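Hi P.,

Sorry for the delay on this. The queue was packed all week, but I finally got your sequence through. Input first:
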Amino acid sequence: MKFVSLVVFVWSLLVAVNVRFAVAQPQTEIRGAWIHNYGPFDWESAMKELADAGFNTVFVRVARGANAIYPSKYLPSDDWVTEDEFQKALDAAHRHGLEFHAWKVCFFAGGAALQKGAAKTFYDELAAQDRLARDPEGKQAPFLNPGDPRNQQLELDVLREMTEKYDVDGIHLDYIRYPENPHYDFDYSDVSRREFEKHIGQTVANWPGDVFSGPLKWRYENWERTRIDSVVQRAYEQTKKLKPRVQVSAAVWRANNTNRAAIKQDWTRWVRSGWLDFVVPMDYSKDDARFRSDLQEQIPHTTGRALFAAGIGNYQHETPEQTLRQIEMARVEGADGYVLFDYQPQKYAALLAQLKTRPRATALPWRVPKVEWTIGQGLERKDALPAYGAGTVLGVRAKVTGLQVVQAQLHSLDGQPPLRLSEATPQANNEYGWRFAVPSGRWRFVLSARDRQTGKDTMERGPIFEGLPSSKIAELRASEQPPIVRGRAKRVAIYAGGLAESGLVRALPRSTGVRAYRIYQLKPDHLREAKVLLLPQLRDVSQFTPEAIMALRDWVAQGGVLLMTHDAVGFRWHARAFPEIGQGIALSKTRDVEIGENVFGLSVGAWQHEYPDHVVIEPGANGKVLAHDKEGKAVLVGGNLGKGKVFLYGALLGYAPGGAMSAGETQLLMELVGAQVQENKN
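Then the structure:
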């Protein structure tokens, strides 16, 4: 999506016309199902059953990292395959009017490892060639190392083969990431070392320590992400060069803020870069509120850039009614469709019977010409829709190809009646433009149009935005600026990008002599006012940049007191910001904490933390163990850095309902932020 400056006009120049009319059923929608199989399958029956129930798309698993269900030049067939199952499934889908998207499970080789024939032989060859991912101890996992150029080329070769050989409608990427099983710590093979050293132009002296938890961790994990990014980009460009009509999509993990670090899957970047036609986050959940919340965080990353289909885990639902409810939620929140996981003939009967009675679209969104949208510059927000001041004037342009625009509307995501915009005259370059007063709430720009070639009416859905009161816009803009804190109370900053930050904010006003406030950026000018900073585990570790860490270290060295909790102490994907004080090394399910020695003015005592686990901390050269669990392992470590102090607490303060903390945790927090913290006596 392109952006231009927001143009503000006086109210008399507004051209929006508030006309109410009935909300029509969506004309276009992805209604899909994933189909995977481990043996002979009745494709004809499955495709007929899905088509009769109103589905229009199937995603059939045709290949994995080291095995396939068709005769491939690059991958051996599964033990049970005797025919071209790919072609059989494709023919059956097309006979019943279903789009066929070839589902490729990338890199994962566990299926081949469990077989007996050619697939198992191929897997053993891959292992012998050191092409499987290795953890820090050198143990291999049944997963092709994405950092190995041989494996990247294998994925691209298979995708090219599927596109050239078969009349597919789409290529669907799955497992396009690093492994998560039996843990997330991959890849640390000799191949990756060689490729990374080539990339940075220097030798890594301490492998894998320097890239696992040392000074090169940030650069190495960024490099790993680019290995995945490169495969997605090349797959997209390759597919469009071979057959431009073939769509490229990906099934992705739901929480991008975490998983771009954990599994190196940065799908929002793929969308921004134009490497996907649509994305399908796997939002499998029994919890409707969680499902809706996921959609509200994800859809803003795609609106106006790529289509969005909600991945619904109906296998988790006890009744078809919950699946139907989540389908409707996806529509209301602005999704372009849904994909169910996964089709099983014996379990689908009740759901399919109900779907047969539901309204259905007649065409898929990508079967109409795409529109290039240009929308006035708004306030960009992380994991939220672009925001505009309600009542201000917004300019929107739409450049169309092969379409005649009949009408432009704003469709509400909040249940409000639609708004029809004034008619616009097309310019010479087939560009239409509108200016209108931004209404309050969440809205989507929609064009009713007619295909010039076929004469068919269609509906093209565009960007989604949110209209907010001017006071809220001002508040959001203020958060981008360095805070100004007045008064003589001790200034305690709480990082708003951390887990449980609201619980900490609620806890601190009860103390006297403390002025608690949020900061939104880890930059020197945002840190300057604070005497104490509480930095919980981050929601998005990409914010923990080398620049942010340097700003924190400089701020502490000048006299600041820093408390970091849970993963922020330097565990999993959080960088080790203060290795001389300590770093996280393991996770413990115990909840007992005891301070046995009065150091830094902290009271001796014992308690149980409210969070269900804590990170065990290994003290660094300048770190002192201040509290331990019942197994004698460090839970709280502190130390001096320049004129300031750093405290690493393995539990997560303020996460319990209502921000509740045990008496011991409350006292610890008050002592750390209060004036009682003294110099280290040792």
